[in-house]
Amino acid sequence: MSPMNKPQYSTRVIVGDLNPVFEECTALLVDPNAPKVKERVSLQVWDSDRFTGDDLVGHVEIDLLGTNIQLEDSHD
């Protein structure tokens, strides 16, 4: 979620498949100072319901301090 509690990225909904395969990739822009302030990346999996509310299936939080982040220089 963004600082304003909005999803930063969302996959498409696959209908009629109990074992969907998404085969999607994404990149996250991470501030170089994020690991120093103990920021985390939160991933959530939700189901999609037509007539009732969506349900949280699972989630994981990744501590950026323990990851191998490669910083890229954005200046040309």
Quote the distance from N terminus to C terminus.
30 Å
Query: What structural class should be given to the helix and strand makeup?
Result: mainly beta
The count of helical stretches stands at: 0
- How large is the radius of gyration? 16 Å
**Total number of beta strands:** 2
Query: What gross morphology would you assign?
Result: elongated
Oligomer: single chain
Contiguous uncertain segments of 5+ residues: none
Largest sheet: 2 strands, antiparallel
The residue fraction in helices comes out at under 10%
Would you tell me the overall average pLDDT?
Answer: 78
Order of helices and strands: EE
User: Beta fraction of the residues?
Assistant: 15-25%
Strand order of the largest sheet: 1-2
In words, what does this structure look like?
The chain is mainly β. The chain is built from no helices and 2 strands. It has a two-stranded antiparallel sheet with strand order 1-2. The two termini are about 30 Å apart. The relative contact order is 0.18.
Strand-helix topology:
Blueprint: E1 40-46, E2 56-63
Antiparallel strand pairs: 1-2
Give a short overview.
This protein has strands at residues 40-46, 56-63.
